[in-house]
Amino acid sequence: MYLTWLDSNSWLIEIAGKRILLDPWLVGALMFGKADWFFKSERRTQRQIPANIDLILLSQGLPDHAHLPTLQQLDRQIPVVASPSAAKLVQQLGYAEVTALQHGELFNMPNLLTILAVTGSPTGPTTVENGYIIRDLTSDRSIYYEPHGYHDKNLKDFAPIDVVITPTIDLKLPLIGTVIKGQQGAVQVAKCLQPQVIIPTAAGGDITFSGLLLKFLQAEGSVATLRSLFAANNINTKVLEPKPWERFEVPLPQLLNLS
């Protein structure tokens, strides 16, 4: 299993011989609507879009997960698996093969891998987006991804999971509260899924931020404090710190998922 962190929430996952592009933001600026005065993120270094993508996987329909300029650049013939809100967006862009997964539904590449949609982050009064469990059927390895730290209460039914990709810092807004649940969410999911490795997402990367929102966002915690929390809770999970755009093999010496 190889991973490449492409900044922010974006990942290239190489598993079961397939290349999965997860929540890609790869071109242009990241904004919500056209309100660059409110929030804008830009790359310090221009990057090439990864080649030979077998599947696009989208957890949410918001721009930091389903980034419209990036999706407009990608090949419309690449199959897409997405939350219902993200699926609606890529269908409007003319993607040829789109699978919308409700919570509890499974996408299957026969004899290679499965992708299970689980309850993810609330993004509106009636919208709850997706987390995913990706399982490699050729090696029995598994990955769980949820980008805001909102973890399904029934995750324990799928333990153990080898790798967890989730936030490891908290982001808070006055009057609203925690919008990304990193530290305690990571402790919760580590206890629940017993992963060998946890890897931070939604942590910036080789990018810059600007806009009014930054005056109100409060970031708390770090990888070091998370490791201390793990030690205090007798959690043996390793916390990795990937570097942006550097491909690495996930160290998984022990096969957990043997039946």
UniProtKB/TrEMBL annotation:
Coiled coil: none
InterPro entries tied to this protein: RibonucZ/Hydroxyglut_hydro
Database matches in Pfam families: Lactamase_B_3 (PF13483)
The name this protein goes by in its record: MBL fold metallo-hydrolase
Organism (species): Pseudanabaena cinerea FACHB-1277
